[in-house]
Design goal:
The protein is α/β, with parallel strands linked by helices. The protein has helices spanning 46-53, 76-83, 101-112, 117-130, 146-157, 176-193, 204-210, 230-236, 240-246; strands at 8-17, 20-30, 35-40, 61-66, 69-70, 86-89, 164-168, 196-200, 213-218, 223-228. The strands form 2 sheets. It has a 6-stranded mixed beta sheet with strand order 6-7-8-3-9-10, sandwiched between helices. It has a 4-stranded antiparallel beta sheet with strand order 2-1-4-5, with helices on one face.
Length: 255
């Protein structure tokens, strides 16, 4: 693989369900080490795009290349190899409630590696330490706060040492202080480990704090209506939809 290649390349991607098209002809790249945020209004297809990017859904057309490998076309062993090269944190965290945090993190190691149990435990503790949860390794998900559950889910997503992490609404349901703590964790992981993040979010404070680049989706346009640095888009965009979103201006119907 060419080491200068992008982390992710999206080419002419069209997504939807059956005959219903949500988004069409999307083209963008995510650079290595970037914190890349997908945003837009409710129902515009943010989470659907994310799930098409990491292979949970199959797009109606187009391609997604992860580190140069086409996940939309890959099958069998080739597809599994690509799927283990990244980690995913779902919106709800999706931790296994019957397992403590340590075993939540080692679960994928058991399935995809040949490591011994002591090796897996050591690695899992390293991941928990990276997100500030090492003292809670024996806790069950129900015994920790929502913010801690999100961080534990990130630790589990890092179980196989991926270079790319996909996070779906990581700040959803969190208070501002907890959300800011999670933002700091994401920025630290990006800076210290060089992890590339692809994040779905509509939380403006979080977006301004962490995003290197964003793409803004629009339901009516069925595509991308803005791309770039969120602060620059906020201050300079002449598109009223973009200006309204980034400056939190109520629609005339509501006003």
């Amino acid at each position: 693989m060419d080491m200068t290649s992008n982390a992710i390349d999206v080419h002419n991607l069209t997504i939807g369900y059956g005959s219903k098209v949500l988004l069409q002809n999307l083209n963008f790249t995510v650079q290595n080490g970037e914190i890349f945020v997908i945003l837009g209004g409710s129902g515009c297809g943010k989470s659907s795009l994310l799930k098409n990017m990491f292979g949970l859904y199959q797009p109606l057309g187009g391609d997604v290349l992860i580190e140069g490998q086409n996940i939309t076309a890959a099958l069998g062993v080739e597809r599994q190899k690509i799927m283990t090269s990244f980690g995913v944190m779902y919106q709800e965290g999706a931790l296994f409630g019957s397992m403590d945090l340590l075993n939540n993190v080692t679960l994928f190691m058991e399935e995809y590696t040949q490591l011994t149990r002591p090796q897996m435990d050591l690695l899992a503790r390293t991941k928990l330490d990276l997100v500030g949860l090492l003292p809670y390794e024996t806790y069950m998900p129900s015994e920790i706060s929502g913010g801690m559950q999100k961080r534990a889910a990130i630790a589990r997503a890092m179980a196989l040492d991926p270079k790319i992490l996909f996070l779906d609404e990581p700040s959803a349901g969190l208070d501002p202080i907890t959300s800011a703590d999670l933002d700091r964790t994401i920025m630290d992981l990006s800076k210290n480990l060089g992890i590339t993040f692809v994040i779905v979010s509509h939380e403006l404070a979080s977006i301004y704090a962490i995003a290197d680049k964003v793409v803004m989706l629009d339901k009516e346009a069925k595509g991308i209506i803005a791309e770039g640095d969120p602060k620059v888009l906020r201050d300079t965009s002449t598109d009223p939809r973009v200006h309204q979103f980034f400056n939190r201006i109520m629609s005339k119907e509501v006003a």
